[in-house]
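May I ask for a single protein's sequence together with how it folds?
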Amino acid sequence: MRGTYGPDQPYTELAARALKLWTKYERRWKRQFLHRTGVLWMVSSREDEYERGSIDVLRQAKIKFHELSAAEMKKRWQQVNFDDVRWGIFESECGYLDARASCQAVVDAFVATGGVYRQLAVLADGLENTPLRELKLSDGSRLKADVYVFACGPWLAKLFPETLGKVIHATKQDVFFFGPPAGDSRFCDSSLPVWGDHGKRFFYGIPGGDRRGFKVADDTRGSEFDPTNGERVITPAALKRVREYVAYRFPAMKNAPLIESRVCQYEQTADSHFVLDRHPRMENVWLLGGGSGHGFKHGPALGEVIAELVLGDDVTRDVWRLARFGKKSETQGTQRNTG
């Protein structure tokens, strides 16, 4: 959960709203979802327009941050090797989210207020035949509604191949969890913030908590991935690359045991921006996707946005409209929208 997204984008403002809403729901449900460890963005690349462009946007959104020199970072986090880091941004009120627990809490609250939750698959056959009057479900039942909202992550393009097949692509992303040295608390979330490292490649991670090890991942986009049938097995090359990075940036973690690995996926558009728009041929169908690895943290704020759109009280942003993909010049972007 962070607000550093570069210049000229809507995500810092969206993150600021989401931060307020995460706090609101934590108080309402008396549960913690956001662990406010702070987020440290390390700049080791000479090309720092992305970070420089974030400063004014963070300030405008009123997200608390500190611009730190390499010397200041070395003094504060001595367990990190900052030798090639030039400067950094530290967002003190941000951190990491418990995604699964958050999703379950939303379901519980929805059901408690009279909502009906059904865990079924929507059959894609005929889904783009207009008009959409009902959904065929995997148990043989059908669902009728006035308006349908599809927010299906990496499966969205599979459900709407005619509209989104060339717009949203799922990629394989390997994630690793290492075990810190026994009795060494320097790599736990009480001593280290969430971090991102913008160098030749972009690595990011989450310090070890009560339930998981020290998370590290390479944000470089992986190969095309089928979220339904893809084998969730990490590659040796990815593990080797991450181990080499960990040994350099966190010297005491060199040769730390790999205690868990996961294969996740990003689902991303060509310009890295979300899709939040009506289906071009169906007025009663809304599509929400392209969240890459960073859509979830904006969830409470995006929920507000889509609710207002469905109720007809607002219009979607141009940057999220499907029409933008009609112009080739607008489908090339460098926005870093990671987890």
